[in-house]
Write a structure and sequence with these properties.
By secondary structure, the chain is of the alpha+beta class. The protein has 7 helices and 13 strands. The protein folds into 3 domains: 77 residues, Orthogonal Bundle (Helix Hairpins), CATH 1.10.287; 109 residues, Cupredoxins -  blue copper proteins (Immunoglobulin-like); 104 residues, Cytochrome Bc1 Complex, Chain D, domain 2 (Orthogonal Bundle), CATH 1.10.760.10. Helix content is 34%, strand content 22%. A hairpin with a 2-residue loop joins strand 1 and strand 2. The protein binds copper (II) ion. The site of copper (II) ion has 7 residues, from loops.
């Protein structure tokens, strides 16, 4: 039962089993006692109620035993929880983690960026987490860790994966319409596999062999495709498919207008998303990427949009 997937699993599992055992015992014991008393002391057999005297010994027993039990449960919970929020070991791999509506971004010390968390087996990993928009929460159930991510603050969490494989990583704080899209994976590799993956910063260059591949990479890394599909389906925002070079009806300053989807329009939609809203979509759902995406990035995105359209520049 996932007993050794991370350095925290065993202690958290123990505290769960202790607490679950205690409450299960009392659930059964109390239920059985109620049933027995209902039968034994039913009114038909005891028409006249017997007066009950107080009992100091009983009072002490049913105060001291539950007190010991709750302190015991607290002890196991506390001892399992404290290490998860303590400082990571010095040699931990640091990964800058950004949670945003509605995707994840992991940035490594050598500048490598991914939307899946790659880590080596048996090495501590520290996630330094921030959010540019709303509250999120990083949750890796298999590792028994969860921590909130707060806009304007950096919160840390660390763990040491003990076994290679893929495990779910998702947002556990309802953060808006596409909250459920904030699911990705921790991929635990062997040290050799990880080293090989880590030094391979050529991935972007290789992808550039097909037109628009760099643009697609930028869209993925910035979480754009959580809200804008690539296949024409309608999500929170309009799809990227087949828009380039076509006309689109937008609402601008309270009036409907027809605009051409050109470089100007794309740039404005990224920098001032609420200015020209495509009819049928809502305002206020996208933040500006001014200062995050450069003009050069947008040019690369445009090359990709062209590849999704029958119209060329
Ligand atoms: Cu979220």
């Amino acid at each position: 039962m996932y007993s050794n997937l991370s350095n925290f699993s065993e202690d958290i599992n123990t505290s769960f089993i202790v607490i679950f055992s205690v409450i299960s015992f009392f659930l059964i014991a109390i239920t059985v006692t109620i049933i027995l008393f209902v039968i034994k002391y039913r009114e038909k057999k005891n028409p006249v109620p017997t007066p009950i005297e107080g009992s100091v010994i009983l009072e002490i027993i049913w105060t001291v035993i539950p007190l010991g039990l709750v302190i015991g449960m607290f002890y196991y919970g506390w001892m399992a929880w404290i290490p998860t929020v303590s400082d990571a070991p010095e040699d931990a791999i640091e990964v800058k983690t950004t949670a945003r509506m509605w995707s994840w971004l992991f940035e490594y010390e050598n500048g490598k960026k991914t939307d899946t968390l790659y880590v080596p087996e048996g090495k501590p990993v520290e996630l330094q987490m921030t959010s540019p928009d709303v509250l999120h929460s990083l949750y890796i159930p298999a590792y028994r860790i969860k921590r909130d991510i707060i806009p304007g603050r950096v919160t840390n969490i660390w763990f040491e994966p003990r076994k290679t494989g893929s495990y779910d990583l998702f947002c556990a704080e309802y953060c808006g319409l596409q909250h459920a899209f904030m699911i990705t994976e921790v991929k635990v590799l062997t040290q050799e596999e990880f080293d090989e993956w880590y030094i391979d910063t050529t991935a972007v260059v290789k992808a550039a062999a097909t037109p628009g591949a760099e643009g697609l990479q930028i869209l993925r890394m910035n979480g754009c495709i959580a809200c804008h599909s690539l296949d024409g389906s309608k999500l929170v925002g309009p799809s990227y498919k087949g828009i380039w070079g076509h006309e689109v009806e937008v609402e601008k300053g309270g009036q409907k207008q027809t605009l051409l989807v050109d470089a100007e329009y794309i740039r404005n939609s990224i920098y001032n998303p609420d200015e020209e809203i495509v009819v049928g979509y809502s305002k206020g759902l996208m933040r500006s990427y001014q200062g995050e995406l450069t003009d050069e990035d947008i040019d690369k995105i445009i090359v990709y949009l062209e590849s999704l359209s029958d119209k060329k520049e």
